[in-house]
Design brief:
By secondary structure, the chain is α+β, with helices and mostly antiparallel strands. It contains 17 helices and 22 strands. A hairpin with a 2-residue loop joins β17 (about 480) and β18 (about 485). α7 (about 205-220) runs parallel beside α11 (about 345-360) and α9 packs across α13 (about 435-450). The longest helix has 20 residues, at about 205-220.
């Protein structure tokens, strides 16, 4: 029997305790996606890793109906009845599904609501994100029901990323609205979390994970270490504001490119995004993470679970035109999606080993999250409707600024819809993109789509076609091992890592090679310090996070004293060498 109890709090607020019963009690291992997000939740601040959503309550719906629909969702989906038992100080390896339990709904009743009730609910949801979820005992959703004189207006929630992602919240919202409308929901067809864990443990699942790790390792060893290795790029987490694009112009242009080329609109948009980002960053390849990749599998499309594992795409943009790039992007995206389910701990071992040996720090600089094509979630992830007085079909081109948040990335794009308007949210590091430049990047994307709708656009003409200019790095920046770096910046960073020892870094190109084949050599005046190349390399690698413009030298040369002319590379060549080597052997 279901029970509902009320606990009154001051100020028109009371808490409903909702009892549920149903489903089967089960236990089993965590999924790869859960392990990935649990690792992030244990490491990151809760406001940075928890997620949130706001659901508008249909007019005429009572509080009891809202709560009963939430209860039905909990009984329907195992993820909402799941906790992660584990010993203190350890990471969970097991999940437990309950057959009965309770959750709470905090009701905030108001005589009058602010002019923007959705914005108010959004602020409540964001505030609820700031509290850490206890993985071993907490219900994975925190509900607040905003009411006006007892009438429900919207539900604000924070959600544990260990059990939900944006796609899962979209499915829940769609089903909740269906329940409120009196619909009878078909039984869930997607894999449950425990069903997915079982599939991942099969020989085929293990082989797939191993293949994914090889795919990641190839890109990490050969692609740019960071898309935005340039002056101003520093820090591993930055506070970035939201910039939203809503444009019918862009949607018409996107449809035009798709019709002209025969490509899917999602592939066209991905290609345009890669082209303009690589152009702005001055890179030969665009390396991006696409977190929604796993929801393209039919058995996972409507899964209420966290499937947040990146597809890592590397797209070589050294081609003559947009149409040629579009053909390459299709295959590159499919290859990335195919390799987006992996053992997260194994991946971090791969990243640690590859970056130490390469002498770089892989930076997840660009994230492109296209949720517009996910089955059954389009309506629930796009805006619930334009504000009063606005065109119901959307503006021709509108840019609006929203709240900021801390992100471990330089540029994050969320594509909510592509028809009848392109609705895209972007968070861009303000140290690299001032407001005018950030707006220029999105209007440049629209201009590129409009140009490509009528003709094949030469990539050499992107500055003129889009108005977006490549970054100017200055004379001390050069390509080494496929990445941009600054030898003076490397020298300064290595010197600080070695407690101020004098360091000089040269860029040496073997005879007959191009500038991209240059290699760095570090000369270190160690004095009486018993320094080895391995110790120097380890110290520099420890200092690399947050410094994307720094690459480790491929060779360390240790001398006793610096030359009188310490800024001349030739002067260092005549110093007596005490020790030299690659430094890639980790000290014991």
């Amino acid at each position: 029997m279901h029970r509902l109890t009320r606990s009154r709090q001051p100020g028109g607020t009371h808490v409903l305790t909702v009892t549920y019963a149903g489903g089967e009690e089960r236990r089993g291992p965590v999924t790869m996606g859960q392990a990935n997000m649990i690792r992030c939740m244990l490491r990151d601040e809760p406001a940075h890793i928890n997620i949130h959503d706001v659901w508008l309550v249909p007019e005429g719906t009572g509080t009891d109906s809202v709560v009963e629909a939430l209860r039905a969702l909990v009984v329907r989906h195992e993820a909402l009845r799941t906790t992660f038992p584990h010993a203190p100080g350890s990471a969970p390896r097991e999940q437990a599904v309950a057959s009965r339990g309770t959750f709470t709904v905090t009701v905030l009743d108001h005589r009058e609501l602010p002019e923007d009730p959705v914005g108010y609910a959004e602020s409540l949801a964001r505030r609820a994100r700031e509290e850490r979820f206890r993985l071993d005992r907490d219900f994975p959703l925190r509900f607040s029901l905003v009411t006006r004189a007892g009438t429900p207006v919207c539900v604000a929630m924070a959600a544990s990323h260990a059990l939900t992602d944006a796609g899962a919240l979209a499915v829940l919202k769609e089903e909740w609205l269906g329940l409120l409308a009196g619909e009878e929901l078909a039984p869930p067809a997607s894999l449950t979390p425990l069903g997915l864990a079982e599939e991942e443990a099969t020989p085929a699942g293990v082989r797939r994970s191993e293949a994914s790790l090889r795919h990641w390792e190839r890109i990490i060893r050969t692609g740019p270490q960071a898309m935005f290795a340039e002056p101003g790029a520093e820090g591993t987490e930055v506070r970035v504001p939201l910039l939203t694009l809503r444009s019918r112009r862009a949607a018409r242009a996107l449809a035009g490119v798709a019709e002209r080329t025969g490509a899917l609109p999602s592939t066209v948009l991905l290609t345009a995004w890669c082209a303009i980002v690589a152009h702005r960053a001055g890179q030969d390849a665009c390396v991006i993470a696409a977190p929604t990749s796993n929801r393209y599998h039919p058995r996972l499309a409507r899964s209420v679970n966290t499937l947040s594992q990146d597809a890592l795409l590397s797209l070589d943009v050294r081609v003559p035109s947009f149409d040629v790039l579009l053909k390459k992007a299709w295959g590159a995206a499919l290859n990335a999606y195919r390799h987006s389910r992996f053992d997260a701990l194994g991946l971090w071992e791969v990243i640690g080993r590859a970056t130490f040996e390469r002498g770089s720090r892989f930076a997840r600089d660009v994230v492109f999250n296209d949720v517009s094509t996910l089955p059954g979630t389009v309506a629930s992830l796009t805006a619930d409707g334009p504000p009063e007085g606005r065109d119901p079909y959307g503006p021709e081109l509108e840019l609006t600024w929203g709240p900021d948040q801390v992100l471990p990335t330089r540029v994050l794009a969320f594509v909510y819809a592509t028809d009848p308007l392109l609705h895209l949210g972007m968070w861009a590091d303000p140290a690299l993109f001032g407001r005018e430049e950030a707006e220029g990047l999105l209007t440049g994307l629209v201009r590129l789509l409009e140009a490509a709708a009528t003709r094949d656009v030469p990539l050499a003409s992107l500055t003129g076609a889009t108005g977006v200019r490549p970054v100017e790095r200055g004379p001390h920046w050069l390509r080494v091992d496929g990445s941009w770096t600054s030898p003076p910046l490397v020298a300064a960073t290595l010197s600080r890592a070695l407690d101020g020892l004098p360091v000089h870094v040269t860029a040496d190109a073997p005879a007959g090679s191009g500038p991209a084949e240059s290699a760095l050599t570090a000369y270190i005046a160690a004095g009486d310090t018993p320094l080895t190349p391995a110790q120097a390399h380890t110290a520099l690698m420890d200092a690399l996070p947050g410094r994307p413009g720094v690459l480790a030298p491929s060779r360390y040369v240790i001398v006793r004293h610096p030359p009188a002319e310490a800024d001349r590379s030739g002067a260092w060549l005549h110093r007596k060498i005490l020790r030299e080597g690659t430094g890639r052997q980790r000290p014991m």
